[in-house]
Amino acid sequence: MYDFHYYNPVRIYFGKDQVNQLKEAVAPYGPRILLVYGGGSIKRTGLYDRVLSQLREAGKTVFELPGVMPNPRTEKVYEGIELCRRENIDFLLAVGGGSVIDCCKAIAVGAKTDRDFWQTFFINGEPAADAIPLGTILTIPATGSEMDMSAVITNWATSEKNNYDSPLIYPRFSILDPTLTFTLPKNQMANGIVDTMSHIFELYFSPPDEDNVTDYLAEGLLRALIRAARAAMADPTDYDARADLMWTSSVALCGMLNNGKKTDWASHCIEHPISALFDVAHGAGLAVVHPNYLEYVRSCAPAKFARFAQRVWEVDPAGKSQDELAVEGIRRVKAFFRELGAPATLAELGVGEADIDRIADLTDLSCWSYKPLTREDVVNILRMAL
Amino acid sequence: MYDFHYYNPVRIYFGKDQVNQLKEAVAPYGPRILLVYGGGSIKRTGLYDRVLSQLREAGKTVFELPGVMPNPRTEKVYEGIELCRRENIDFLLAVGGGSVIDCCKAIAVGAKTDRDFWQTFFINGEPAADAIPLGTILTIPATGSEMDMSAVITNWATSEKNNYDSPLIYPRFSILDPTLTFTLPKNQMANGIVDTMSHIFELYFSPPDEDNVTDYLAEGLLRALIRAARAAMADPTDYDARADLMWTSSVALCGMLNNGKKTDWASHCIEHPISALFDVAHGAGLAVVHPNYLEYVRSCAPAKFARFAQRVWEVDPAGKSQDELAVEGIRRVKAFFRELGAPATLAELGVGEADIDRIADLTDLSCWSYKPLTREDVVNILRMAL
What we know:
Two copies of one chain form a homodimer. By secondary structure, the first copy, chain A, is α/β, with parallel strands linked by helices. Chain A is 48% helix and 12% strand. Chain A is built from 15 helices and nine strands. In chain A, the strands form two sheets. Chain A has a six-stranded parallel sheet, with helices on both faces. The first copy, chain A, has a two-stranded antiparallel ribbon with strand order 7-8. In chain A, a hairpin with a 4-residue loop joins β7 and β8. The longest helix of chain A is centred in the middle third of the chain and has 22 residues. The mean pLDDT of chain A is 96. The interface between A and B is large, with 41 and 41 residues. β2 of chain A pairs antiparallel with β1 of chain B.
């Protein structure tokens, strides 16, 4: 293992009706709360009312920022920053999926500086000095943002989808109630599962590849994810499967699977401009990019890919060469994504050969592990995905 | 999965020479530091000098409490509490294994109350209102105390070995340098490996047993532990194996493997009076008790024990009944402990049939998961271990 530092102070409330812990969870913070949410599905499901009732019981004054969309944009962040300053907000509460949480995180640091949040943090990557504390109530398991210190924001004007990390944007708490995910449409479920699996791949398929604790944990998590995904797709109200999916997405990015690993993120770097240019769901983009990326770098770590086939997919090694095992492991990933109903080609995302250059131009080439990617590599991978 | 709350704010510095992070790690705390350690091996290895040099560079005034022994005792805790009060200590730094850390934790809460620490916390289990902050530098991977909120202290006068939990005694940081364990004697290594495995068993062998993320993580961790243990026993300076052993012992008790599980602790409850009465190493006691306990409760969860054999020990299920698989899994545990050179019988600990009643009298019967243990059950398990 490489040396590492690990720190994750997020307080997790997990289980049915844990929303009832909200009153206690927000108690230590100031009275003026900004509630951030998306397109309004939380009103239809009754979650909005339950949240407001808890906040009122806690004696809080509630302000609202609705309308955060998937691939959250700079405009919404500026709107939130403005609101925080005007209303002197003490605490941000994100109710939704990764987009809502990431928007909240960007507001949290942006509201505490006089400088432009996009340039300062998402372009320059400067360390934030302060942030408004935030908490989350998760409704879509996928991005892991509820338990990490990252935010991804899209600048529509420049077609940039950038990431920012700071320990100041760890949620103070996250409430995870698997029953809140029972009503998710199947395509959102599939995207979330692909996103979670892709996160684990970014950490697992990276040096060191000799035996290490972190890879064993990743293999366990992948097996749990595959089982739960199939069970939840078959019966969307299977509580245990939903619970496993929700907790897997959080554990995947809580830092435990980074420990001692180089980590990769190349597939995410290639996918980000696809989302930014074509506004496709992040999980759908990853379903197309990641298997092709794995295929492309497979020969750099043949033993690891063979191990993946055996340990995660239980491929019988009898009579198979290392290469055959490696190929079979990736074939299983593709088949699994297909089984979920996720897209497999750029064409299904509405992206054609003519778009490849623009995507490659916008791909951040600083992410890599097995192979330093060139622009040409990105073009090759995207061609494989047509 | 059952509902759960998870929170673990320990900051981990992992890797070679991470002791050099100490100056930065203690910076946020007050100037008066109490250094707590054991029998003096840290002076022989040079660690003591490195620690003092870092603390001096950080501008701290250092006080010392040496001589904490295995199965740390109330007397040492009282001595530490007295010292903290007299010298107005701001921060406790434990340098050693689980005994030193646990002693530190008991001092941390004891020094902040006017009442008797043993009666208040370790007998009554009252929640602590305050604690002196503490950090650790780990030298023996085993108890997981470096990343949990528990302390175990022995009262020699009453032959009680009791546990206390409080979020206030989470270490603020723990420094884990695997090279510090290169010089550990083989029997201490073996005890640490058994202790770590036993912790994972206490969490894994408990409801729920239907598929859940936490069990998959536990299986991954057990596999990593078995591999690393064999490699480190063969070559004590195998850095990767030592790193895996060290990190596995921390992850085992950081809370991740408790999430959504009932958890057991019966083997620990039976072992504690053995340590308290006969002053045997905790890991040695567990090596004797735990396999027999598993054998005793096996029939309560046959499918789980069969799964354990296949997933952890890779036992081929072909032609084997569920019961045969379960038996084989436990046989592998016993063989593994023997391979490490750990004791297998009470006789090897100097404990005879005549001692069984005293041990059973002192066993806390409130711990159980598959089976509510009676005093008679404890006697039966101990007889199996003769």
